[in-house]
């Protein structure tokens, strides 16, 4: 992302952050919201250890791992799109944005398969506390992925450098949130 | 592509740490190394989130203690979850 511009000086302490300051307000807000979710999840596990142990054992860690690799690779492509835009290589920029979006769609497809698998095993939103939180947290994140795909499509059309930096920052935020969700939901027991 | 080298390096770190976390968890399921797997998963998550902040979101050069504050927030979240998992 770019260095802070003179135009953003009026944003006070946010002026020292790269890109559009409003995006950082959103990033901080989302971190706090998902952070509260994750700490709540940890607290609920203290109350229902057996329920959470059984629930996590039913999850497919490999699917979660593949989805993590998809999102971080998508994040790389989004960052490369900004680099390409800075160099006025518009073809490369669109290719990278398209690749980032496709990997985001692949993430959603795998997430859908994973939800279907869990549903087939009889694990629904109302099964127990673990699956209520699992579906809510992954569903809320998936909604962000969908929104991120819309943002990527918009910046591919309206491709000013500022739009690219701001739009891809949203995508990186979605990526970063998943990097926190994945270990807590799937790996930490 | 020289300017993008740090992005590729960050991606390699992200991919390797993801694979290591998954492998350690899968091994832990069989060999009873749960606490180690927890530690690896949460530490890897912290490092990965920092990579995204620093390289993909471009926070590396930001002034004003933002990196410290965001790192502290990540530590609070992951440390809190880790501490509760130890109980």
Query: SS-based structural class of chain A?
Result: mainly alpha
Report the principal-axis shape of chain B: flat
CATH class of chain A: Mainly Alpha
Q: Write the CATH homologous superfamily of chain A.
A: Cytochrome c oxidase, subunit III, four-helix bundle
Give me the number of helical elements of chain B: 3
- The SSE string of chain B, one letter per element, is HHH
- Please give the radius of gyration of chain A in angstroms: 18 Å
Number of extended strands of chain B: 0
Structural class label of chain B: mainly alpha
Kindly state the percentage of residues in helix of chain B. Answer: over 70%
Helix share bin of chain A:
over 70%
| Measured distance between first and last alpha carbons of chain B | 48 Å
Task: Report the total helices of chain A.
Answer: 6
What fraction of the residues of chain B are assigned to beta strands by DSSP? under 5%
Oligomer: heterodimer
Low-confidence stretches of chain A: 2-6
Tell me the β content of chain A: under 5%
Protein described:
Chain A is built from 6 helices and no strands. Chain A has 189 residues and is mostly helical. Chain A has one domain: Four Helix Bundle (Hemerythrin (Met), subunit A) (Up-down Bundle). In chain A, α1 packs across α2 and α3 runs antiparallel to α6. The radius of gyration of chain A is 18 Å and the shape is globular. The N terminus of chain A is likely disordered. Chain B is mainly α and 87 residues long. Chain B has one domain. Helices cover 82% and strands 0% of the residues of chain B. Chain B contains 3 helices and no strands. The longest helix of chain B is centred in the first third of the chain and has 27 residues. The radius of gyration of chain B is 15 Å and the shape is flat. Classes of the chains: A mainly alpha (189), B mainly alpha (87). Chains A and B meet through α1, α3 and α6 of A and α1, α2 and α3 of B.
